[in-house]
């Protein structure tokens, strides 16, 4: 009977240690993905700003001219 309880305790400790390791690995991955996501958000913001700046140009009078279509359309 004592041997069974001891074996069960060892098994539970082993499972707990495995779960702790798995949780630590998953946490590291989540942190890395969060960093990567933030970098992507920053890149999208920069690209959006560049596109916005390139889609309008100044015509010399201070007014921006939209470059989607030539003026004769």
UniProtKB/TrEMBL annotation:
Renumbered residue ranges of the record's region Disordered: 48-73
Biased composition (Polar residues): 48-64
InterPro entries linked: SlyX (IPR007236)
Protein name: Protein SlyX homolog
Classification of source organism: Bacteria, Pseudomonadati, Pseudomonadota, Gammaproteobacteria, Cellvibrionales
């Amino acid at each position: 009977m004592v041997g069974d309880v001891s074996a069960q305790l060892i098994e539970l400790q082993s499972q707990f240690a495995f779960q702790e390791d798995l949780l630590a690995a998953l946490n590291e991955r989540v942190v890395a993905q969060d960093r990567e996501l933030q970098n992507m958000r920053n890149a999208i913001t920069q690209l959006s700003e560049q596109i916005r700046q390139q889609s309008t140009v100044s015509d010399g009078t201070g007014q921006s001219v939209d470059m989607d279509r030539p003026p004769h359309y």
